[in-house]
Design brief:
The chain is of the alpha/beta class. The protein has two domains: about 80 residues, Helix Hairpins, CATH 1.10.287.180; about 80 residues, Chitinase A, domain 3, CATH 3.10.50.30. Helix content is about 40%, strand content about 25%. The protein has four helices and nine strands. The strands form three sheets. The chain has a five-stranded mixed β-sheet with strand order 7-6-5-9-8. A two-stranded antiparallel ribbon has the order 1-2. Strands 3-4 form a two-stranded parallel ribbon. Strand 8 and strand 9 form a beta hairpin. Helix 2 packs antiparallel against helix 3. The protein is elongated and about 70 Å long. About 15% of the residues are buried. This is Transcription elongation factor GreA. Belongs to the GreA/GreB family. Keywords: DNA-binding, Elongation factor, Protein biosynthesis, Transcription, Transcription regulation.
């Protein structure tokens, strides 16, 4: 039976023909998608957040990266090759130990490469004024009179045992913007702690 559409007489499409056309259209689209897949959008490195880092911290990480690549990596590859020569790998403790070390080293290499590529190296000696990144700060516990000295540094180089305080830590965040003589309060697992800023240096 003819149908009237937009002022024109048309004939209805048989169901079997319509189904076949729909199948061909879907197949063509799938083939086109396979030939030109939709790319996965990766964030541009320029859009990623930079990591503030002191010159000393950057140098230390770069040195560690070079050591891992030129010393540790070749040594592990050699150890794996030697372990393979011992036969059955399923019960080869030396082989599995070497592979575990390899996994750790390769993971650390990728981590260091990321840190270094995103590093915003700052020379603290060029800074001055209230506490900010790079400052070396001496504080005193107002309850115990115990003095501590920290340098506020980037997360990858932080090491409390060496007096390098992560800028994202609660104490560092409380210190930012403060001056000599100011007091801060920091919430710790043992309760609230109060500190006074004794000195600020940029070295």
């Amino acid at each position: 039976m003819a149908m009237l559409q937009s002022g024109k007489v048309t004939s209805p499409v048989r169901p079997d023909i319509r189904a076949r056309c729909d199948h061909l259209t879907l197949t063509a689209l799938l083939e086109l998608r396979a030939f030109n897949p939709i790319p996965t959008i990766q964030p541009c490195r320029e859009d990623m957040e930079k990591i503030p880092m002191t010159r000393a911290g950057y140098t230390a990480l770069d040195k560690e990266l070079k050591t891992l690549k030129t010393v540790d990596r070749p040594a592990i590859i050699k150890a794996i090759a030697e372990a393979r020569e011992h036969g059955d790998l399923s019960e080869n403790a030396e082989y599995h130990s070497a592979r575990e070390k390899q996994s750790f080293v390769e993971g650390r290499i990728k981590e260091l490469e990321s840190f270094i590529s995103l590093a915003n190296v700052i020379d603290p000696s060029t800074l001055s004024g209230p506490i900010k990144f790079g400052a070396t700060v001496t504080i005193v516990d107002e309850d115990t009179d115990e003095e501590k000295t920290y340098q506020i540094v980037g997360e990858p180089e932080a090491d409390l045992e060496k007096g390098l305080l992560n800028i994202k830590s609660p104490i560092a965040r409380a210190l930012i913007g403060k001056e000599e003589g100011d007091s801060i309060e920091v919430r710790t697992p043992g309760g609230e702690k109060s500190y006074e800023v004794l000195s600020i240096k940029y070295v």
